[in-house]
Structure formats: C-alpha cells, structure tokens
Design goal:
Number of helices: 9
Largest sheet: 2 strands, antiparallel
CATH architecture: Alpha solenoid
Oligomer: single chain
Number of strands: 2
Distance between the termini: 27 Å
Shape: flat
CATH class: Mainly Alpha
Number of domains: 1
Strand content: under 5%
CATH topology: CHAD domain
Radius of gyration: 20 Å
Helix content: over 70%
Structural class: mainly alpha
C-alpha cells in the first residue's frame, strides 16, 4: 500500500514531467495534480505558500484554462470581424502565458517542500472537519437561489474544501475511489459553467471598450451555460448522496491511514 509521502512525491514527479504541449488536457492535468499536492500538504498542516510560486502557477493554470475555453468557443465566430479581433488578442495572451508557465515551472522557480513523517495525524479530527464542511456545503445548496451564479460559486468553494479533506482520508486505502472520480466530474461541470461566465464577462468588456455593444449577442452562450446549470440541478440529489457516501466510506479508511502528519524538512 502506498503511503501518503510516496503519493506526494509521485504527484510532484508527474507535475514536473516536461512537455512542450499546453493543450487543454495537459493544463487540466497539471491543475488537478497541483490541487492534489496542495491537499496532501493541507493534511500535513503545510500551507500552499510553502511551495515557491505554487499559488502563482495554480492561478496561471486557471487563467490559461479560461483562455483555452474562450478561444475554442469563439473559434467558430471568425466570420464576425470583431470576434476574430478578440480571438486574436486572446491568442497573444495565450502565448505570453505559455512562456510565463514555462519560466515558473523551472526547477529553481517552482520548489516543493520535502515532507517527513512526524506522527500519525488525528484522523478523527480530520473526519470531523470533513463532516463540518459537508454540513456547510449542504446548507449552501439548501439556501441557493435558482439561476444565481454567485450562490453556485459558494457551493463550488465549499465543495472543493470538502473534496480536499475526503480525498486525503481515502487516499491510503490502496483501492480505486469511484465516488471521488464521480465528484471530480461535478467539479469539471461547475468549472465549465464558470468558464461560460468568464467568457461572457470578457466579451462584454471587449465590446464596451470598443463601443461595439450593438454587435454583442450572448444568447447562445447563455443557453449553453443554462443547460449545464440545469444538468447540475437535475443531478443535485445524486451529487449530495455521493458526498455523504464518501464520509461513510472514510470510516473504513480511517483505520488504515498512516504517516499522514508531516512537516517541511528544513
């Protein structure tokens, strides 16, 4: 059974694999890996700020993902001169971001702390935190106003915190975690919803700056975003049940997790 330290080292190696590709798949993979690394560090009581330039890289990956989404969605609109101009500006930003990511991911620029075992983590305390976060998540879902994107962002925020805690509780089981993978699909779904939001904001800003309001039509994007929100709403009960199931499953994992409490090796 792989220990948390081994998993931590493995995720770093995967993240540091050099690739000339900055495709949507690669950027998403790097974001997921960095999120997982931060999750392990959180379990060890080590803040992401201990990773030199870690937060900068994570935010940059988020921006790169947004740009890729916008370029892909607007690529079919090249018949519109103004949209084509906007896409051209996005591609220029993308080139700069690619260079920035390459620079920040150099060995001397992105440095991960070494984690060493100190003692077993308080599993019960961690489970309590996960239960509290689940309660907050369910509360946000209950209070959510339909078609309110800001309420959905609050749900996403608490969902990520919960996912981070439960993933670490289950990680040392040495088994496949289908529930985690299902929840990550909901993470991707929510990400796409917010991608549409950022796309529409970017277009509004561009057209306003260039006094082209009359040319702007967001109806198609609004419909596509609404369809994704409807999908999430339709599956909300399943989403809740999977979240609850992970807490139950962690009861088994709790007796198996070892070597979880680490400190940076100075």
């Amino acid at each position: 059974m792989r220990t948390i330290i081994e998993d931590y080292k493995s995720q770093i190696i995967k993240f540091q694999i050099n690739t000339d590709s900055n495709s949507a798949f690669v950027i998403k993979k790097k974001r997921d890996l960095l999120f997982h690394i931060f999750s392990i560090m959180a379990a060890a009581g080590v803040k992401p700020s201990k990773v030199k330039n870690g937060k900068k890289v994570y935010k940059l990956l988020r921006k790169m993902s947004d740009l890729q989404f916008q370029i892909k969605k607007l690529g079919k609109e090249n018949s519109n001169t103004y949209i084509a101009s906007f896409v051209y500006s996005l591609k220029n930003k993308q080139l700069k971001q690619n260079e920035k990511l390459k620079r920040l991911c150099e060995d001397t620029e992105l440095v991960f702390p070494e984690l060493i075992a100190k003692k077993n983590i308080d599993i019960q305390k961690m489970k309590n935190k996960a239960s509290e976060q689940l309660e907050k998540l369910l509360n946000k879902i209950q209070k959510r106003r339909l078609d309110n994107i800001y309420d959905l962002k609050k749900i996403h925020k608490h969902f990520l915190k919960y996912l981070q805690l439960v993933e670490i509780l289950l990680i040392n089981e040495g088994k496949k975690m289908p529930h985690i993978q299902k929840l990550k699909k909901y993470h991707d779904l929510l990400d796409e919803i917010f991608n549409y939001e950022n796309l529409m904001f970017s277009l509004e800003d561009f057209f306003e700056e260039n006094n082209l309001e009359s040319e702007l039509n967001l109806e198609d994007f609004e419909k596509q975003q609404s369809a994704l929100i409807d999908k999430f709403d339709f599956e909300i009960e399943q989403f809740i049940e999977i979240c609850k199931a992970l807490i139950s499953k962690s009861q088994i994992a709790a007796t198996e997790i070892q070597e979880l409490n680490y400190l940076p090796n100075n």
